[in-house]
User: Fold this.
Amino acid sequence: MTEYVSTTPGLFPLPDWAKDDLSDLKGHQKHDLIGGDEGGEIAAAYENARTEVIEDQQEAGLDRIVEGQLRWDDMLAHPLAVHDAVETRGIVRYYDNNNFYREPVVDGELDFSGDVANELEAAAELSDGDDLQAVLPGPYSLADLATDEQYGDEAEFLGAIADFLEGEVDAFPEHETLFLLEPSLVEDAPEDGADERASEAIDQVASATDADVVVQPYWGALEEKVYAHLLDADIDAVGFDFVANQDDNVYNIQEYGATGDISLGLADGQNTLVEDPEAIRDRVDWVEDQLQVTEFETVYLTTNTETFYLPYAKYQEKLEVLAEAADLAEVTAA
Assistant:
């Protein structure tokens, strides 16, 4: 029987009180952003906020609990932005939306950092242990968002990013699931040759954990060749953004098949409209009817994107919707 698992891609909005407190503590200039060595009141504020978002997920009844990535000033670029071998420079638009991040310029060897592992260790102490989900940018997206002044070759740079992320994952505490976020596979699709290297880099990072690995692209559907190569990676599930694009995502699965598990982005992570749990359950049924597959072992129900775009109260409501929708889907399947 299919297991329906409610979860998120992480990257939550800060609680309102934390926004106010951290604005006063950190300031608003580039040098005031997170550098990986914060302490004192700033560290305490983030710790308290982490506790709150983990409690939000537990109270909502989510099946997987994420750390929330509340310290990530630079969204997906954060693991590089806090690295000693990286200089952050000017402000760059985050894909084609109205968010921005500091350009991470790699000008030294990317050795082990441990920043994300430390976050996950803190989350593990607050969760039940067997429901912990790790979240990282995928290697292709992280390389795409960064600038290389060290390696001098696109393939070598992607390999260095994959080595770096592999080392980070190897340091993670025990976790049930790893989500690798790969919006660049949609937004800046790799060309011939690069698509195969992207799949190999993802495979390398996934090999560093015994947890179930989900590769979650979003903001559309993957190009056919990119999707076909992604299926060659040793991963457990591919994610599909059914909010942004239904037809092309369904076509890819019908034409090329799918992994044994699947992640369905069915709730809008950027829209304040809160979906009805029954409507999400109906969308699950619709997707499964379109695919006409025998049965997925695990179906992850999630927002299509991260939720840091949302007001805090709306993010909380989205968590509850996902948890209830997964429960309804389990009842329907039974």
Remarks:
- The radius of gyration is 19 Å.
- Residues 237 and 259 are 5 Å apart (CA to CA).
